Amino acid sequence: MGLTRPPRSPERGVGGGWAPTCGGKPERVLLPSTVPADKRLTTHTIEFPYTRTLGPVYSAFLTGMRDGQILGIKSRDGRVLCPPTEWDPNTGEGLETDFVEVGPGGVVTTWAWVTEPTSKHPVDHPFAFALIKLDGADTALLHAVDAGSMDTMQTGMRVTARWKADRVGHITDVEAFVPEAAK
Amino acid sequence: MVNDIAIVGYAQSPSWRASELTEPQFLFPVISEAIERAGVERREIGFTCAGSCDYLSGQTFAFVMNLEAVGAWPPISESHVEMDGAWALYEAWVRLQHGDIDTALVFGSGKSSPGKPAEIYPLQMDPYTLTPLGADPVSLAALQARAMLDAGKITEREMAEIAARSRKSAIGNPYAQVSGDDDPEALLKEPYVTAPLRRHDLPPISDGACAIVLATADKAKALSKRPVWIRGIDHRIDIHQPGMRDLTESPSTRLAGKKAGVGDAKVDVAELSATFSHQEKLLCEELGLGDDVEINPSGGALAANPVMAVGLARFAEAARQIAEHGKHRVVAHATSGQALQQNLVAVLEGD
After folding, report:
1. Number of Cβ pairs closer than 8 Å across A and B?
2. Which of A112, B172, B328, B335 fits B273 for a cystine, CB–CB 3.0-4.6 Å?
3. pLDDT value at residue A30
4. Is the reported ipTM for this assembly greater than 0.85?
């Protein structure tokens, strides 16, 4: 680079820039105004090069989603929880990673008809949010039901997962649930 | 052994759909009014605790700017909760138990108008199974309402009646945002927003603030002719996953109400953070509040919903019932999370 080291300045500089010094006490120097403006600029790219583990339970759950299967976990009292948790939600006790495949069909235990989806919703046209007790599970999973019309929806109806073709290990690998007859 | 703590000053801002003022700007007169009503010097206050939400402001550490409205120089002792101001009040109540200070200022404030609450709130949920679905508070409340309807615990007509009564009660409330004399029958003819919830079942989106000054027993008696005593206060939390609990019940409200002593004597009035119409009935059942208890004379959260202040405003309204309207025993309730996941209950009494 054509940048020469700027001269040291004895002044406790006002204005100008800061330059690093190699070891010892930092010294303040002023960049001479003869350095062209474009040479005083540099581009930094901030990166957060972290990788993240989801832990023993959500890792298995979302890997399962990628592979097209929905996993629940056995609690100490023998119930199957889906989505699986690391701890028993009632007692806080740690759970063994004893997974059970559940679904892909299940029963709607309650639902809400979303007339105007937000940009964050998984479906871009009117749909139902529903709590779905998947076959083999004792708790219900929140997900979307793409039912076409509110008239199709009722508590107790059976639905089944509609998988995406390209799955990445994400809750939306199930695009939505659909009424079982319509599959 | 619990030391008696009293509310000696309270103030609120109006609830606006969209305030052009910044949060510190609309907080400043509210905090000043609460301190003036308490009759203390700003410098005398031993502890300050705030409740607000940086996600609403869209800026990390936005809550620090709210201290502009307090006056933090020379340095003060203060704290912040990323929760409704009612939990800031709880922290200050605990702090005052130490007995080394005699006054505390608590406030809650929120500006929901700059963002889209339906898209911001999902960030409070489980980040792997709920946030990615955009699980918004209206949809989650609608799941709860449907569960209650299916269980025969409420009817859509009752929900409309709660909304109509709340709006009517709010007519005389200068801080309210939604008020009016509505016929429940007419409300029921309106379309669903997120079925089974209609517009009247939903709270408004609001900007606003509330502040309260607390004092220990001797200080409260010296400051106020009518201190409002906090006789019991407790908060509890239910399971986060909405599909892992019975949405037609609120065990956390029941337990917090029991610990706060709600059922120990007759309750005159209750100010409940029933953000959605059906939640009022659920809360009344869990707290054992019968027909003889006046519910939300202010109009409640259906009339004014300044998020992060709405729960603390229930304390201000409850205190008003005792200090200004001669009521003796009043319940204040605040909630946090989705579909009443977390609940705080307090019993306030006059002398």
Report:
1. 107
2. B335
3. 59
4. yes
